[in-house]
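Sharing a chain and its predicted structure for anyone who wants a worked example. Both blocks are below, sequence first, tokens second.
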Amino acid sequence: DTVTATEAIEAFVPIPRPLPTQRPALAMIAPDAVEETRPTRTTPVEPRDPACLARLRALGVVFSEEEPIDPYGACHVDHPLKVTSIGSGIAVTADAIMSCAAAVALARWAKDELLPAAKEYLDAVPNEISQASTYVCRSRNNQAGAKLSEHAHANAVDIAAVGFSGREPVAIGSGTADE
């Protein structure tokens, strides 16, 4: 039996799927368009975490520190980072705005899971992650009245495809977690 690249990656490194929605998966709304009933932030901006930034640097992540996003609003991000590479020779395409913790988790996943699985199952080396969504001020699954998504705090990354040296990229399907 021939195994597709997507099947090989998912057999070793299952990628969580978004829940089905009736709205576009990447519906973006402006921070001030979030329902007025949602409380705005009342706590002060958290201090930057130098230990987290040190972990990113040790993992070889390439990033720039950005200005706070919506510091006292519903979709606040105290210390957003613009990530262009998650280390291990893997670039991130499209502007990827995420929290330090999300960047560390993505870099560790790539180093500890994606790289070994790609080598074992595809005899290939990942060199790019095409992200479909990082920071966006929206509710969970774009449902009116729902709690804010982790995307609204730059704590989530949706991966659209994984690129490889010497072979075609692997698109990540649009299936659901139940498939």
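Comments welcome. Residues 17-38, 175-179 have pLDDT under 50 and may be disordered.
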